[in-house]
Records
---
Amino acid sequence: MTVKVSVILPVYNVEKYLKECLDSILNQTLQEIEVICVDDGSTDRSLEILREYEKKDKRVIVLTQENKGAGAARNKGLAIAKGEYLSFLDSDDFFASGMLEEAYRRCVEKKAQICVYQVLRYNEKTKETVYDKGSFKKENAPRKDVFCYKDMPDHILDSFQNWAWNKLISHELVKKYHIKFQEIFRTNDFLFVASCMMLADRITLLEKKLVYYRIGMSNNCQATNYKFPLDFLTAFYAVKDFLEKNNFYSAVERSYVNKALAGCIYNMNSIGDVQAKKAVFDELKKDGFKKLGIEGKNEEYFYNYNKNNYKIFREISMSDFDEFMIKNGSRMEKRQFLQNKYLQVKSDIPKVSIVVPIYNVEDYLEECLESVVRQTLEDIEIICINDGSTDRSMEILKTYAAADARIIVVDKKNEGYGIGMNIGLDKATGEYVGIVEPDDYVPLNMFEDLYLKAKEYELDFVKADFYRFVTAANGNMQLTYNHLTGMKEKYNVVFNPSMEPEALTYVMNTWSGIYKNEFLRENHIRHHETPGASFQDNGFWIQTFCYAKRAMILDIPYYMNRRDNPNSSVNSPEKVYCMNEEYKYIKEMLSGNTELWNRFKYYYTWKKFNNYMFTLNRINVKFKHQYILDISQEMRQAESDYELDKSLFSDMNRKRLDMLMANPEAFYHLECISGTSNLERRVAELENSTTMKVGRMVMYIPIKIKKFIRRMGKK
């Protein structure tokens, strides 16, 4: 039998796909073929499968070698090939049934030395096929049936990929010029294909999808390219050397340089291992770009598909590896890089100190502590402040402290949340500080994720969205996602809270983030120490926003905030004026700095009003009337002191505020007696009432007088 096509198949550990590959070759409509299979030292059943096919079909020839890579295997097959044309296939891919016949017929009809055909990518996971446009850029080719490199010198090397398996190649051409594959593990076909494309006088295109390129496997060449990260550069250097020695380079330089740039960025991006990626980065930056002819070319030299690659080339040229990875790595690569950079560094101080303030939470404490001690960030200290618990909380703490040396327990008399928290903050030695309330819990990756983000951007604090939850009677958890802000554009970007007072509109909590310890200490940021009071985290929260220069909020929910603990201060109806005392404390702190106070005072009042409304809904009904009278006076005083900007309020809250200030009795009737279902309608009615108008007039005269006095004082 005269062999029309020799199919050369390098085989290495592909037992899962090998039969499909072999069947696609042996069932070709073109029967006059030989199939040379070269086992490259497989350690699975691949060789056994090859022997089975060799016994069944005399066209199958099996060769073996030690593991040297596909390049060496293909050369071994070339050495015995008898076919008029050569076809190559990777052993995890497969042919369409008429591929060889159609490609061979095209070559014979056009007397072509090379036939290039189209490729379909076959996704192993989804079983979907997608046409690979990049491997068949017909628009770059001349409008003729047969051509050579001289007909398309600016695109000959970057239009049809450097794959051997999407081409049928004349055996005579290969023998005449002694063309061989490079015996390297990756990109071993580029020199072979480039040599054939440059030396062939007659190339033809077949606009049919004839080969399936399997993707989505875990063990293919691309998945293990970190083992030989510089092989592709060896191939590109060799191709350039070939072009220069044969006086081709000047004619096809632009095509080669564009191919080289795309190849460099693609190969570096495809490497997941950080150290392997760094080896490529260092080689390219050192002299790789220069050797490849990329250095010195301006942006216009590169084709449109390379515009982004050119930007990356510029970034590599001007950055160190750390900077580059932070800007350009994939999410997994970036994380691995940050872990290597920040978590592997040994230090005498913990990465994060976690403060847990505790008072009578025996029902929830173990769940909380389990979530903290099992954090993926292991370099932490856990400071538990027992504020005079009278239940089993202290017993639970002792058990955990005995089992984990990272736990520090402070047992003190009951003095309140603020004092306990400040003791914890004073004891914290970590680079960053986090807070976990003892009836809440946190996912195991929370502190590692937040720490890496804080280090990456050198943040004073980083905070994230969170969940609130209650446990239903049947034991099911009911979750509510809470965004820190409704403005999507504010997430995942560094901002300066000290210059952005509108950030005080974000949802207030101290526990969904971490704070740089040095930042807290330099700005003396601590909690209000009023014995027995609640909501003392408000002052701490506002201080962090007023003083921080670099912060970020993340649109990822981590923290799990319990809302069904009956002993929580949130659910304490007797604590009436704790919030008011806290805001007096906050004003005293901020007003000591005139510039700071003037910047934040309007948003301070906005925040205060919203928290007063929260308090009004929370407290016992018997206190509501007097509370409304008191906060009405307080808000009128804020307006009189030029601390109130009503334009910051929503329409609904502005109407509520106006009613509260002008007619607190009517406000009480609406909010606490009639209910709120018809609130908007009643607000509109009262706005037009005589009582409301009189109230506005009562406020109008003193405000005008005060403004006049202030203007006269300035003169």
---
Amino acid sequence: MSSSVLAYAFLKAAFGRGLKSPIDAVEPLVKRALLDLKHGQFEQAKVQTAIKKYFGVEIPLNVIRYTFKNISANTDLISLNKTTFIYERTKSEKGIEDVLNMERESKAQINRIKAILFDVIEEYSRFKFQAEEVLEEWLDKSAISFLGGKAQASNISNQDSELNRIVAIAINDPEHGKTFIKDLTDVALGDALLRAITEITEYDKHKSSQDMGSAIVTFQSKMKGVEVYFDTKLVLRVLGYVNDEMEKSTNELINLCKSLDAKICIFSHTVSEIKKIINRVASGLVEGRQVDGDLANHAFQRGISAGELLEYVIDLDDKLKQLGFEIKDAPTVELENSINESYLDTMVGSRLNQESDDARIADVNSICAIYRLRKGEAKRYLEKCNAIFITPNKALADTATSFFKNHYRDEGESNRVQHCMTDVVFATRLWTKLPTSLDKLPKNQIVAHAMSNLSINKEVKSQFQKHIGELIGEGKLTEQEGVQVKLYNYTEKLISLSEYASTPSKDGAECIAKEIITKQGSYINSIIEDNEEQKKALESQLSDMESKYEREKQTLESDNVYLTESLNKKVEEGRVKISYMEMNLARIEARCGKISRVLTNSIFLIAFLLVYYSFVINLDVTQYLMAHFDIEKNDTLDNVLQFVSVMFFTIISIYGVSRTDFYDYFYSKLRGIIIRIVVGNKEEFEV
């Protein structure tokens, strides 16, 4: 079996056994080729030829040399002749059984894929393809191939569309669909591995295997510092404005970028374009006119109003930041980093059938911005490319690649890393860095790619519209149902997945219309049910909150009553204590006043008596008066004078005690001293 798809399955089977580098996955292919060689010496080029003959793929010669070193070091299958420095095939078969098991598994996988494709071709296709042809074309060669072939996406033929339709039908097969997707995913990843091997060795293909180490290390490294810019359609998918398959595949791509430390970015002009799209759809809803596009279909199917769409615009920047996007302005144009942007704009305009001029201008601005972010340099490795623009539009990626190929050729350089790459190619390329942790990622990419590229030719579309009109005229469909069928996002996909695409008929159109109406009815019912469930859940939450509020209210009221009563009780107790203390203070002050009055009077009386006697003793008044008036000494007179002196000083003392300010001052001071001795600080006591 000489088939490249067998090689892809073989590589994936080998890589799935815990290998670190895609180059290590080549070893089983080399061992399998050695089985067909005779014992003895041989050149490595002979093994390269044997692999190409058996598997239909060409492995770079320096990869084979690198693999020979590992095989000779770890097995007895070959040995190096140290005299001639030529490898020899030994008689040992050690380790070959494992390789043969992988081959059997890979062949069984390919046969399962081919069997399902064969059944689909027989039942649905008007083209008589071979099953293996469909697989190879869809993976690599057609204009809408999964991993991007040489055919330009701007030249999609009916045959290309039919190839994709066959794969999509197989994916949606209710019985074998899951098995088909799993097997197809493995083959697609094996294809991605072979591309990775070629990329690793592209610049070193004329060097020895010893010089490959740096390339392998670079390939295995993360993408720290690389800015990955997302196209408008991919951002709409992330925001959930498309079907679930697209949203899931794009979200997983973003998670993969984050796992490899790449920055998730969006140009500010892309954000502006998204806002214009939302406003255009909202305007169409207000004016009652039909607007095409994923967002319009999303709004129609979910019954989203113009007002709700305008809320999307208001919240857009914040939502993008919450999703992890960095919104950045495109770098300014500089003379040394300038390109022929007008020619690129012409190429994009002529090769792509875009919805509006805004879309074309935004795409051209994004591609030119990537060139400036790379400072105009040709890049060898994706891991060191600085920036890259990711889009689901293969025609845009093809156009950009063609433009820059000519640009760098004129500059005498060779650029290996596309400025603009499709999301599926980028995702599978990143998968080779994290094969064990994100093995499920490409399944969603495959489903999304096949379903998003489903289309019908103009003749079939015209026939379907005609049949729908006839069914309305016959009363089998209402006018509203007819509009519903025409606007339904999956109408073309349902046509593509049915026999109607190959043999249009009114009965077939009626079946599709009924299926759409049923799906829409089920969807609306599910929304109603979801809303009812949400309503019940909210009502239950509200009831719980009200009960909780009542309980807390009662608790607070009870606590308030208790605290009020406690406070009043303490206040009353305080007032009683204060009243009692005031009474005590008044009694103490009265007693202290009496004591101080007695003490003061006593002190003043003693003081005056002391003064009097001192005066009598020191100034003998009687003798003085008698001597002055020349009176003879007379005892009676002496006694009278002494009595008068005593009375005089006594009257003066009593008057001084009871009337003078000095007495009051002395009394107050003495009273204060006594109170402090008895009760302490009066002010503190009163407080």
---
Amino acid sequence: MSGAEIERLRRRERELEAEVARLRDDRSSSPAGHYAAIFGSAVDFAIITTDRNGRVTAWNPGAERILGWSAGEMVGQPTSTFFTPEDRVAGWPETEMRCAAETGRANDERWHLRKDGTRFWASGELMPLRSPEGASLGFLKILRDRTEATASEGETRRVRDELQVVTDALPVLISFIDRDYVYRFVNRYYETWFGRPASEILDRRVREVVGEAVYQARLPLMARALAGEDIAFDGLMPYRDGASRQSEIRYIPRRAVDGTVDGIFVMVTDIAERQAAQADLQEAEDRLRLALEGAGTGIYDYDLVTGMLTWDARTRALFGLSDDDPVSYEGAFLPGVHPDDRERADRAVQAAIGSRDGFDIEYRVVGRHDGVERVLAARGNTVFRDGRPVRFVGTVRDITEARAAEASARRLAALVEQSSDFIGLAGLGGKAEFLNEAGRRLVGLASLEEARRYDVADFFEPGDRSTVLEEALPAARESGFWEGDLSFRNFSTGAAVPVHYTIFPVRDAHGAVTGYGTVTRDLTERRRQESFRDALITFGDRLQGCRRTAEMAAVGAEIMARTLGLDRAGYGTVDEALERIEIERDWTAPGVASVAGRHRFDDYGEVRAGLEEGREIVIPDVTLDPRTAGNPGPLLDIGVRALINVPVMEHGRIVAVLFLHDRQVRDWRTDKLAFIRDIAERTRAAIERFRAEASRRESEEQFRVFAQAIPNQVWAAHPDGSLYWFMSGCPLSRKRVLSGSDGGSGAVMSQAS
């Protein structure tokens, strides 16, 4: 129970005691009727009086509504009737009365029983009743049902803590900047980034932290975000020791309950390493402080006979009124409700007045004097007398912060759900509890319910599970963090997925470990690019030892097939009509037959269309592609379900085809096609260079043979007259300088022998 509620109950206690005193002094019917109205109107509260032994002497309608027994059933019965069996055994009813008698009051925060045997969480107090002379008359107990509110507040705190811990592990700069461009929140990563404590950044202006030049450059973008626009861009972010790092920066407007932007969330991700090597998992921290406090409750009393509206101090404060401001339904309540909610609230109240169902509604108010907009939760019930509605009483509660916190939690949950990283939570026993959409997609799971069937270790390849259980989890428990490169397994395909895995403990508000969280990065793309790079290096090295063009083509085919995990690859020359291909040899995986020999293109469908123009033929599935689906049998017979034909062009004409085959359907990704084209072009260039070099050597040899066969003395000289070649048997010295050089590019001379 909040302090405001306790104070209100104490005030109600004093009022009741004063009323009892007045009734003793004045036995007239009017005060007694007023006392009965007060006692009977508080239907949201159980008000019970007992004698000194704890037997019920009075039982108001609120007690009947909350506990289920009527006054006739309970008067004379002990209050232990609605205590739980275990509390009765423990002696709590007696302990409560003894504490109230000794100290003046006793808190009642525990489970109680209703007439139907169900339990509810009660919140209230027990206080002694005394005569004007100070003699003990018994006790007054006031309580209310807080079951739903207690469960809701606990769940909200749990969700907030879990989400806060998860985002706390993300290594991005996350801050909140208000409309005055002042940092109101910075996460711990700011300390690492700038190399100084967060206290030197928090509550400072942006220009003081990032410098005047960067501030002026960012100012127009921040202004757009404060106007309500989501902003994302790449730019240099000041770093510690005067350096800067290329970063991805986002400005996300934060909207208040009324929809206005009161500041911006800033997310800065370091992308320098990602742009350079796409190597390291980027971690991000996010601690968005969502304050959820249970607000005090105000009480109102609307006299339907006189039209008088009575508000307590708390209700007045929620509507921004002073103690002296007059209140009425038309003059204070309706004008105080936000214009957009006014008609709806009025309809709800009017419908509830006179109804036995009451009402429960939320609406916004704008304080008359302070102008503050608040969200209130209001409840009300009609009090009937002799079948006539005479009063409408109820409570109002400020839920502004709770609603704002829920909206922030939803935004935070959306941020986690939209992340491209694998983000998950597991309980202390290792059972998965949460996995975002990107994570489920990475490991081939269709739903969160499916993910919750597995333990943490189940997500990994068998060879990595011991590392997780014996190294990662113990390290997370003992040191608070573990990271390393491991492999997930895809539950749908069984394929291994290389990842950079992080794991950290999730703690509750008291610091106790309640489970584990992870923010994990998929390394598949990086590993693929590394394999392509290594394959190109290997290809270049192996080309050095090739002595024939066919050998060069075979090396290229083998490198492609091994790197991409294919069944067969080869190189074949084609005739001028592009009707046949002659395959001298091909590379095949173990157990796959060779297709070396002569083949007709037309026997295998439209697998040559576009080759003459230099376009490759790419078919992921020969049974579905229209070029081969009409008769895929010949291809399937030689173990081809997916294929690529890459033309090798010389002087604008196709001279050969480099082909790739696989027995499975293949997804020919853009990066794989680029790798294939790269190998094909390097193969073509290497073959062309090899042939050019062979042609040059052949020409030189023919020239030498010709020169040796003629009877003249023949030599060749540089423009300066120095000889660089002469026929065998020529009497001229190699270092002799020819006379009469005209400064040309060189000369070939001869003379009769």
---
Amino acid sequence: MSQSTTNPAMEAKQSGPHFIIISILTLFSFGPQYFTNLSYILNQMIIQNGLKLSTHDMLLPSIASNLAFALGVPLGRILSMKFGIRKIYLTFIGIFIGGTLINIFSFGLYTLTIGRTIQGIGAGVLFLTILPLSLRSYPNKVRNYFILFAIGGLFGSSAVGAFFGSLSLSTSEWRWLFLLNILTSLICFWLGYTVLPQQKPEEKVSLKFDVKGVFLFALLLIVLIFPLFNLQEKGFSSIHVWPYLALAFILLVIFVAVDFTAENPLIPVRSLWAAKPISGTIMALAAHVALIIAIAGINGFLRTIMDPPFGSLTIFYFWFFIGIIVSALICTLLYDKLGAGILGIIGSITIILVSIQWRMVGPEAHLSMLSFQMACVGGGVSMVLISGALGTALAGDIHQATARSASLHSIRNFIGAVAAPVLGWFVLRMNAMHYEDIRGKTSLLDPELYSETAALVRKLMNSGHTFTEAKSLASYTIAVNAQKGAVLGAYHDLFSILLILGIIMLLASIGKALTGKGRSLVQKEKRILLQAPPKGKNKNEMILSNQN
């Protein structure tokens, strides 16, 4: 991103294959974490049955992994600056492989949790170790293709994880998914060892480590594990939840106060304190939570209301991937022309339109239409998130781009790690409220319900059931329908939050657009006309081409 006086042709020759290799090192380093997260959501029941765990037990590995990833993200920037990219990259690829091996040979809840946690911290550190290098490795004239890689590759990892997760449902096996992580990590280790240069003595940075910030942030995340794990079962009012959340809030306030005044803060929040970075940050944060809601909501709807065959579920998530690829192509071609704000507006409107439809979705919905809508959500969310993230990084002093990017992604992953279990509690809470509401409104004294029950009993008796059997089956069917109605109402409420987030994204995108298009990824070449040489010498004008 900085200016260079090297020959452009030579730079292109050197950087051509180099940026492709760095992109592979980036995608295969922390992309498997996104892959695993989404596949884990889809094949959770298989893992649960295989390890003889409860549904509640399955929350612990997921929560611990996400919080560990949130810790690793800001650490990656600091560690790579202090010890060099190569050393940190190869070390944490090895750590990620170690966590994956533990997952493959897991025999219970604690081994699975330990493995997922090690994976999370490894992938988190790799995130900001290699991602900034990936952007810098793209030659100026093709730097916009970084967006194609960022959306298509990184968001695509989530879509591919959902695809393979649904595919694993038909095989009833889950350990092979972690074997794929081993394969990609070994490729990264070999390529990283071959390509990444050793840190030279003159390149070493004398960096004062933010020990207080690291300690407070790590302690905050550790404290959060217990209440987030118990939240869905016990609720906010439980003694196992609210005191720990109160302690976590106090630690968060202390951490922000300490880091705000630190010389080299773990999370440089001060770098976001301006109109352009703030609007882009809100875009990215809202889009990240929207993606969690969309995947959790529509996956829950499909599994509990529609219950499609595994093959149809696989095709559904393939459409999610298609939407992401289309978004990647649009952003690649139009980011420099339209800017982050306009692209964010387009993505936000797409999310708003789909969320309005999903707020009224019912059992009669067609899977083909839902697949198309999921493609729109995948495209819209990725468009807003990447536009907001790039718009934040490129807003203001370019030398502070890494600090702004580190702050945004650290905050984004922290909020995402906390939001997921809170949203799970919200769905269960609303489900219980809707069920009680339905029970309160239904009674056998209700003429409509009585008529419906009598008609169902007659139908069952005509099918060969006795009166007692028919009455029992009719009562069971009505109870099941009431439960489905309550669950459906809870998902409608969840999609209402998605609509609100869409509106927030739209307002933030408008704010981003009003502050200007911002810095382009591909910089125009600067042509500097040198003074003509004295008479009697070469009179041709010498032009120095300087490229950003």
